[in-house]
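Lab notes, practical 5.
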Amino acid sequence: MLQRFADWLVFGVFGLDPDSKIGDALDFFIYDSIKILILLFVISAIMGVINAYFPVSRLKRYLQTHKLYGLQYLLASVFGAVTPFCSCSSIPLFIGFVKGGIPLGVTFSFLITSPLVNEVAVAMFLGAFGLKITAIYVVSGILLGVVGGWVLGKMNLEPLLSDWVKSIQRQADSQAELWEEERLSFWKRLPGILKDSWGIVKGVLVYVLIGIGIGAAMHGFVPEGFFEQYMGKDNWFAVPMATILAVPMYANAAGIVPVVEVFVAKGIPIGTAIAFMMGVVGLSIPEATLLKKVMTWKLIGIFFGVITLFIIISGYLFNIIL
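Output from the prediction step:
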């Protein structure tokens, strides 16, 4: 429905050509902006309800006081794999986790895996590359989330969260304690939950629009074949080059798997092509812009740096195995 509305507005009301770059970019911008803002509001409200009746602070204390031997990272990564989100769509849920005080490394496991592995990517990979490559890709995507989240969790990065998210964490904890003491009914709590959710949407609105605007520009105006000519060279630095060149791009798995299939058909090694795909769907400039409301630039740089390194390693391993 949202896609039909965006198509109607851009191509019907504005009268832009569906095959034009500006039309494609504007359609992408309107659709993704509405989708992510709705997701952000709905997920924030759901997390507000959860925090009211099943305080996330209790889960936070449980994770901090119990030895789970890394199982929490695996569970978060698997949860990310079953959620059908792109890198920017994952951020509303990521904000909800951070707001509730879930350990940062665990939330990173979700954020890493969520855009990389989902049912759309699995179905398209099966059709394009068969069972073996699909299974390796899925397992590596989940492991990337587990290992990446564990490494980032061990770096004690919580002080690098933004002042805004620290503030809403304190508010969420105090509100949950108040509601627990007063035992208010759901309908009395709901206006406060919705108000807080709308406050979160307003707080990140500018960052969402800037981030998606960058993604729309990349989506509509990057010349065809631009990245392929750099990835296709038979040299040792093709994998890191492919990963780094992928970061400015922004697309979900459904949009990039056909591109990867074309790359492989033209002789680009499968590991190099998959590293490019992971960079596109797992890391992007729009994602960094959205995360700026939650993290400092230093934390964003550390997150992107660690995951970029792991994607490059994965690309080399894919080339060796396959």
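Observations recorded by the TA: The chain has one domain: 2-321. The mean pLDDT is 75.
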